[in-house]
Protein backbone atom coordinates (compact mmCIF):
# COMPACT_ATOMS: atom_id res chain seq x y z
CA UNK A 1 0.00 0.00 0.00
CA UNK A 2 2.86 2.33 0.77
CA UNK A 3 4.23 1.98 -2.79
CA UNK A 4 1.12 3.46 -4.44
CA UNK A 5 1.72 7.12 -5.38
CA UNK A 6 -0.78 9.62 -4.00
CA UNK A 7 -3.50 10.82 -6.32
CA UNK A 8 -3.20 14.39 -7.59
CA UNK A 9 -6.58 15.67 -6.56
CA UNK A 10 -5.79 19.24 -7.75
CA UNK A 11 -5.39 18.34 -11.43
CA UNK A 12 -9.04 18.03 -12.45
CA UNK A 13 -10.31 21.11 -10.62
CA UNK A 14 -7.53 23.07 -12.33
CA UNK A 15 -8.69 21.87 -15.77
CA UNK A 16 -12.29 22.62 -14.86
CA UNK A 17 -11.26 26.05 -13.68
CA UNK A 18 -9.48 26.80 -16.95
CA UNK A 19 -12.49 25.62 -18.94
CA UNK A 20 -14.79 27.80 -16.87
CA UNK A 21 -12.44 30.72 -17.35
CA UNK A 22 -12.45 30.30 -21.13
CA UNK A 23 -16.23 29.96 -21.14
CA UNK A 24 -16.71 33.10 -19.05
CA UNK A 25 -14.24 34.93 -21.30
CA UNK A 26 -16.29 34.06 -24.37
CA UNK A 27 -19.53 35.05 -22.65
CA UNK A 28 -18.01 38.47 -21.94
CA UNK A 29 -17.96 39.21 -25.66
CA UNK A 30 -21.42 37.81 -26.40
CA UNK A 31 -23.27 41.15 -26.03
CA UNK A 32 -20.86 42.93 -28.39
CA UNK A 33 -21.07 40.08 -30.90
CA UNK A 34 -24.87 40.33 -30.71
CA UNK A 35 -24.70 44.06 -31.45
CA UNK A 36 -22.43 43.46 -34.45
CA UNK A 37 -24.70 40.68 -35.69
CA UNK A 38 -27.77 42.91 -35.39
CA UNK A 39 -26.02 45.72 -37.26
CA UNK A 40 -24.99 43.32 -40.02
CA UNK A 41 -28.50 41.91 -40.33
CA UNK A 42 -29.92 45.42 -40.52
CA UNK A 43 -27.76 46.23 -43.52
CA UNK A 44 -28.38 42.80 -45.04
CA UNK A 45 -32.14 43.39 -44.96
CA UNK A 46 -31.71 46.90 -46.39
CA UNK A 47 -33.12 48.80 -43.42
CA UNK A 48 -30.94 51.78 -44.36
CA UNK A 49 -33.22 52.31 -47.37
CA UNK A 50 -36.19 52.85 -45.07
CA UNK A 51 -34.40 55.14 -42.62
CA UNK A 52 -33.93 58.02 -45.01
CA UNK A 53 -35.65 61.28 -45.83
CA UNK A 54 -36.26 59.90 -49.31
CA UNK A 55 -38.41 57.11 -47.91
CA UNK A 56 -40.22 59.60 -45.68
CA UNK A 57 -40.91 61.81 -48.69
CA UNK A 58 -42.38 58.90 -50.66
CA UNK A 59 -44.43 57.40 -47.83
CA UNK A 60 -45.25 60.44 -45.71
CA UNK A 61 -48.99 60.38 -46.42
CA UNK A 62 -49.29 56.64 -45.80
CA UNK A 63 -47.27 56.88 -42.57
CA UNK A 64 -49.23 59.89 -41.32
CA UNK A 65 -52.56 58.16 -42.03
CA UNK A 66 -51.44 55.01 -40.19
CA UNK A 67 -50.30 57.00 -37.17
CA UNK A 68 -53.57 58.94 -37.06
CA UNK A 69 -55.52 55.66 -37.06
CA UNK A 70 -53.21 53.80 -34.62
CA UNK A 71 -51.55 56.42 -32.44
CA UNK A 72 -50.60 54.32 -29.39
CA UNK A 73 -49.47 51.30 -31.40
CA UNK A 74 -47.49 53.53 -33.77
CA UNK A 75 -45.81 55.31 -30.87
CA UNK A 76 -44.83 51.96 -29.32
CA UNK A 77 -43.42 50.69 -32.62
CA UNK A 78 -41.45 53.88 -33.16
CA UNK A 79 -40.15 53.79 -29.59
CA UNK A 80 -38.93 50.19 -29.89
CA UNK A 81 -37.43 50.86 -33.33
CA UNK A 82 -35.46 53.79 -31.94
CA UNK A 83 -34.12 51.72 -29.04
CA UNK A 84 -32.98 48.97 -31.41
CA UNK A 85 -31.44 51.42 -33.90
CA UNK A 86 -29.34 53.04 -31.17
CA UNK A 87 -28.47 49.79 -29.40
CA UNK A 88 -27.25 48.24 -32.67
CA UNK A 89 -25.41 51.46 -33.64
CA UNK A 90 -27.44 51.92 -36.79
CA UNK A 91 -26.54 55.37 -38.20
CA UNK A 92 -30.04 56.81 -38.37
CA UNK A 93 -30.55 58.79 -35.15
CA UNK A 94 -31.03 62.20 -36.79
CA UNK A 95 -33.36 60.88 -39.49
CA UNK A 96 -35.44 58.90 -36.98
CA UNK A 97 -35.75 61.98 -34.77
CA UNK A 98 -37.08 63.91 -37.76
CA UNK A 99 -39.47 61.01 -38.42
CA UNK A 100 -40.67 61.30 -34.83
CA UNK A 101 -41.34 65.01 -35.10
CA UNK A 102 -43.13 64.58 -38.42
CA UNK A 103 -45.33 61.68 -37.28
CA UNK A 104 -46.10 62.62 -33.67
CA UNK A 105 -45.36 66.32 -33.34
CA UNK A 106 -42.29 67.86 -31.74
CA UNK A 107 -43.37 67.29 -28.13
CA UNK A 108 -44.48 63.64 -28.24
CA UNK A 109 -41.91 62.75 -30.87
CA UNK A 110 -39.12 64.43 -28.92
CA UNK A 111 -40.11 62.66 -25.71
CA UNK A 112 -40.18 59.25 -27.41
CA UNK A 113 -36.77 59.89 -28.95
CA UNK A 114 -35.17 61.15 -25.72
CA UNK A 115 -36.22 58.11 -23.70
CA UNK A 116 -35.64 55.61 -26.52
CA UNK A 117 -32.19 57.00 -27.33
CA UNK A 118 -31.16 56.88 -23.67
CA UNK A 119 -32.29 53.26 -23.29
CA UNK A 120 -30.62 52.19 -26.53
CA UNK A 121 -27.40 54.01 -25.64
CA UNK A 122 -27.38 52.38 -22.20
CA UNK A 123 -27.74 48.91 -23.76
CA UNK A 124 -24.74 49.54 -26.02
CA UNK A 125 -22.81 51.06 -23.10
CA UNK A 126 -23.40 47.98 -20.93
CA UNK A 127 -22.57 45.59 -23.78
CA UNK A 128 -19.27 47.34 -24.42
CA UNK A 129 -18.41 47.57 -20.74
CA UNK A 130 -19.10 43.87 -20.19
CA UNK A 131 -16.63 42.97 -22.94
CA UNK A 132 -13.95 45.62 -22.49
CA UNK A 133 -14.56 46.98 -18.99
CA UNK A 134 -11.39 48.37 -17.42
CA UNK A 135 -9.45 48.09 -20.69
CA UNK A 136 -7.99 51.59 -20.59
CA UNK A 137 -7.65 51.66 -16.84
CA UNK A 138 -5.31 48.67 -16.82
CA UNK A 139 -3.43 49.16 -20.09
CA UNK A 140 -2.63 52.83 -20.59
CA UNK A 141 -0.41 55.31 -18.83
CA UNK A 142 0.90 58.80 -19.32
CA UNK A 143 -1.32 61.45 -20.89
CA UNK A 144 -4.02 58.99 -21.94
CA UNK A 145 -4.30 57.66 -18.39
CA UNK A 146 -4.62 61.23 -17.13
CA UNK A 147 -7.40 61.82 -19.66
CA UNK A 148 -9.17 58.63 -18.60
CA UNK A 149 -8.91 59.54 -14.92
CA UNK A 150 -10.16 63.05 -15.61
CA UNK A 151 -13.04 61.69 -17.67
CA UNK A 152 -14.08 59.44 -14.81
CA UNK A 153 -13.80 62.23 -12.23
CA UNK A 154 -15.88 64.66 -14.30
CA UNK A 155 -17.91 62.15 -16.24
CA UNK A 156 -21.21 64.00 -16.10
CA UNK A 157 -19.70 67.32 -17.21
CA UNK A 158 -17.76 65.84 -20.12
CA UNK A 159 -20.59 63.64 -21.34
CA UNK A 160 -23.19 66.37 -20.92
CA UNK A 161 -21.14 68.76 -23.06
CA UNK A 162 -20.48 66.14 -25.73
CA UNK A 163 -24.16 65.25 -25.90
CA UNK A 164 -25.16 68.90 -26.25
CA UNK A 165 -22.92 69.44 -29.27
CA UNK A 166 -22.89 66.17 -31.24
CA UNK A 167 -19.38 66.57 -32.64
CA UNK A 168 -18.80 62.81 -32.44
CA UNK A 169 -21.23 60.15 -33.71
CA UNK A 170 -23.71 59.08 -31.06
CA UNK A 171 -22.57 55.45 -30.98
CA UNK A 172 -18.90 56.45 -30.66
CA UNK A 173 -19.64 58.34 -27.45
CA UNK A 174 -21.59 55.37 -26.08
CA UNK A 175 -18.63 53.06 -26.66
CA UNK A 176 -15.97 55.52 -25.47
CA UNK A 177 -17.82 56.14 -22.22
CA UNK A 178 -17.82 52.40 -21.49
CA UNK A 179 -14.07 52.18 -22.14
CA UNK A 180 -13.45 55.01 -19.70
CA UNK A 181 -15.30 53.10 -16.98
CA UNK A 182 -18.02 55.64 -16.18
CA UNK A 183 -20.86 54.61 -13.89
CA UNK A 184 -24.17 53.70 -15.50
CA UNK A 185 -26.05 56.30 -13.45
CA UNK A 186 -23.87 59.17 -14.66
CA UNK A 187 -24.00 57.89 -18.21
CA UNK A 188 -27.81 57.74 -18.22
CA UNK A 189 -28.24 61.17 -16.62
CA UNK A 190 -25.71 62.93 -18.86
CA UNK A 191 -27.12 61.25 -21.97
CA UNK A 192 -30.78 61.98 -21.25
CA UNK A 193 -30.38 65.61 -20.22
CA UNK A 194 -27.61 66.28 -22.73
CA UNK A 195 -29.59 65.19 -25.78
CA UNK A 196 -32.79 67.02 -24.85
CA UNK A 197 -32.05 70.33 -26.65
CA UNK A 198 -30.88 68.65 -29.85
CA UNK A 199 -33.66 66.07 -29.75
CA UNK A 200 -36.46 68.57 -29.48
CA UNK A 201 -34.79 70.85 -32.03
CA UNK A 202 -34.65 68.03 -34.59
CA UNK A 203 -38.17 66.91 -33.70
CA UNK A 204 -39.37 70.48 -34.24
CA UNK A 205 -37.63 70.51 -37.63
CA UNK A 206 -39.36 67.24 -38.41
CA UNK A 207 -42.73 68.75 -37.62
CA UNK A 208 -42.22 71.20 -40.49
CA UNK A 209 -40.34 68.88 -42.83
CA UNK A 210 -43.26 68.40 -45.19
CA UNK A 211 -42.59 71.57 -47.19
CA UNK A 212 -38.88 70.71 -47.47
CA UNK A 213 -39.69 67.22 -48.78
CA UNK A 214 -42.12 68.61 -51.34
CA UNK A 215 -39.60 71.20 -52.53
CA UNK A 216 -36.89 68.56 -52.88
CA UNK A 217 -39.18 66.27 -54.86
CA UNK A 218 -40.21 69.09 -57.19
CA UNK A 219 -36.55 69.89 -57.85
CA UNK A 220 -35.86 66.23 -58.65
CA UNK A 221 -33.52 65.47 -55.77
CA UNK A 222 -33.66 63.72 -52.40
CA UNK A 223 -33.98 65.88 -49.30
CA UNK A 224 -30.98 66.01 -46.99
CA UNK A 225 -30.73 66.80 -43.28
CA UNK A 226 -28.63 69.83 -44.24
CA UNK A 227 -31.77 71.25 -45.87
CA UNK A 228 -33.31 71.45 -42.41
CA UNK A 229 -30.41 72.26 -40.10
CA UNK A 230 -29.42 75.90 -40.27
CA UNK A 231 -26.08 77.47 -39.38
CA UNK A 232 -27.71 79.22 -36.43
CA UNK A 233 -28.91 75.93 -34.91
CA UNK A 234 -25.44 74.40 -35.24
CA UNK A 235 -23.81 77.38 -33.57
CA UNK A 236 -26.40 77.25 -30.80
CA UNK A 237 -25.48 73.61 -30.06
CA UNK A 238 -21.80 74.50 -29.77
CA UNK A 239 -22.61 77.48 -27.55
CA UNK A 240 -24.63 75.24 -25.22
CA UNK A 241 -21.77 72.75 -25.06
CA UNK A 242 -19.25 75.48 -24.23
CA UNK A 243 -21.45 76.80 -21.42
CA UNK A 244 -21.82 73.26 -20.05
CA UNK A 245 -18.02 72.82 -20.04
CA UNK A 246 -17.29 76.01 -18.11
CA UNK A 247 -17.71 74.45 -14.61
CA UNK A 248 -15.48 71.51 -15.56
CA UNK A 249 -12.81 73.83 -16.99
CA UNK A 250 -12.87 76.00 -13.87
CA UNK A 251 -12.47 72.93 -11.63
CA UNK A 252 -9.46 71.80 -13.64
CA UNK A 253 -7.87 75.27 -13.49
CA UNK A 254 -8.36 75.48 -9.72
CA UNK A 255 -7.00 71.96 -9.28
CA UNK A 256 -3.82 72.78 -11.21
CA UNK A 257 -3.45 76.03 -9.30
CA UNK A 258 -3.69 74.20 -6.00
CA UNK A 259 -1.03 71.69 -7.10
CA UNK A 260 1.39 74.51 -7.87
Summarize the structure in words.
With 260 residues, this protein is mostly helical. The chain has one domain. Helices cover 79% and strands 0% of the residues. It is built from 13 helices and no strands. The protein has helices at 11-28, 30-44, 53-69, 71-87, 93-104, 106-132, 135-139, 142-153, 155-164, 170-179, 184-207, 209-218, 231-259. The longest helix has 29 residues, at 231-259. It is globular.
Describe the structure concisely.
The protein has 260 residues and is mostly helical. The chain has helices at 11-28, 30-44, 53-69, 71-87, 93-104, 106-132, 135-139, 142-153, 155-164, 170-179, 184-207, 209-218, 231-259. The protein has one domain (29-259).
Describe the secondary structure blueprint for this structure.
Blueprint: H1 11-28, H2 30-44, H3 53-69, H4 71-87, H5 93-104, H6 106-132, H7 135-139, H8 142-153, H9 155-164, H10 170-179, H11 184-207, H12 209-218, H13 231-259
Helix pairs in contact: 2-6, 3-4, 3-5, 3-12, 4-5, 4-6, 5-6, 5-11, 6-10, 6-11, 9-11, 9-13
How many E strands? 0
The fraction of residues assigned to DSSP E strands is under 5%
Distance between the termini: 75 Å
What integer is the average pLDDT? Answer: 74
Notable traits:
single chain; 260 residues; mainly alpha
